[in-house]
Amino acid sequence: xxxxxxxxxxxxxxxxxxxxxxxxxxxxxxxxxxxxxxxxxxxxxxxxxxxxxxxxxxxxxxxxxxxxxxxxxxxxxxxxxxx
Length: 83
What we know:
The chain contains 3 helices and no strands. It is mostly helical. The chain folds into 2 domains: 1-48; 51-83. The radius of gyration is 29 Å and the shape is rod-shaped.
């Protein structure tokens, strides 16, 4: 009887330890995943900006304006400030 009680008590403690390890592992995994994905997204945006100078020129021409290089540079600075 004593052996069965000791085994049951030991098994009960192991379940809580296993649950604790599982929760800690999930939290560490989520945090690591968020940090890695954030770094990868920033890298992709830096390498492939969503708007480039040619797109800005096309947009301004579509509005009936003939943009100067100074205006295009100002628009690019404003776009980079929001990234």
